[in-house]
Design a protein that fits this description.
homodimer; about 100 residues; mainly alpha; 434 Repressor (Amino-terminal Domain); about 55% helix; elongated; DNA-binding
Chain lengths: ~100, ~100
Amino acid sequence: MIMHNPPHPGLIIKELCLEPLELTVTDAAKALGVSRKTLSSIINGKSNISPEMAVRLSIAFSTSSESWLNQQTQYDLWHAEQKRKELNVIKLAAA
Amino acid sequence: MIMHNPPHPGLIIKELCLEPLELTVTDAAKALGVSRKTLSSIINGKSNISPEMAVRLSIAFSTSSESWLNQQTQYDLWHAEQKRKELNVIKLAAA
DNA sequence: CCTTATGCTTAAAGCTCTTAATCATTAAAA
DNA sequence: TTTTAATGATTAAGAGCTTTAAGCATAAGG
């Protein structure tokens, strides 16, 4: 049951990882081993968290890669669910 | 904690959805509203379950789209974790 | 023999993820 | 005020994924 519009995972990175440590996007990107553009795009909601990026985040911030990718999944799913009624699918099994 | 090699979600579609209903790939693809090739590739582990496909599966088989996409996430993550040590990431926060 | 189902290949379009280089703006420091 | 650092954005590019259509060869069944 997904009812609310989940925030983009990039917002979580900014608020829960960068700001508490007073990290700049530039420095965090260096630590993560990605370009500044890549991290900037994610933080500003323009790109998604890839599986590899989830592992990078888990190393840098001592979290679980699963939590990062699950957040992305919830975000993706919410948007996919918005188009549920537009999909022309025939029900094959009853509820 | 992910320790085992999770099966590709396509295997689950085949074993838990198609076979119990004695559905052919061709017929299931028609019901899902995708090409035969698309479903065949997923079932044979060549393609992944997209968010939209998760919603299609949830409609056709009266399941939750979340469960389908979570299976894909676990699969993706397991493979990304295999390369954890190859990623050049600097730890920024302690465990 | 003919039909059906299947997996595979080719070719193509569209999208995502990533990089490097560049530019304009903002904010802080000297 | 001038200079430097950080940021968000754009452009250009390559690699890969998802999807489609069309076609081919194989296997199974009537």
